[in-house]
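Record type: monomer structure entry
Structure origin: computed from sequence
Chain ID: A
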Amino acid sequence: MTLPERQRLVEHVGHRIAELEKMFANEDPLAVKKQRQSDDAAADMDLTIQAPINDKIMQNHQQELSQLQQSFAWLKSDHAGYCDQCGSEIPVARLMAALGSRLCLSCAETKNS
């Protein structure tokens, strides 16, 4: 991986981390949302129904954030761009498409089968 490619990846991962952190900062707890809707029973019911779905989405975003933070540190290390499993170089296109990836396509397919 060339230095400009690494810098582009670091920037791309950094932007996604910032997006996720901003989303977490702007996410109000369910109790606060319900308090705002206290005069609207239908809106309160919608919040109650949506809560488990929103919780799962937030958990997924938290996992993504954690993975991206690890990738951010990895991209700044000497191991950046090389598969954690087999050591082969990971194409930059794969790293851009799957920001948290640290496995080459072959190792990732083997892991998922």
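Annotation 1: The mean pLDDT is 86.
Annotation 2: Residues 3-80 form one domain.
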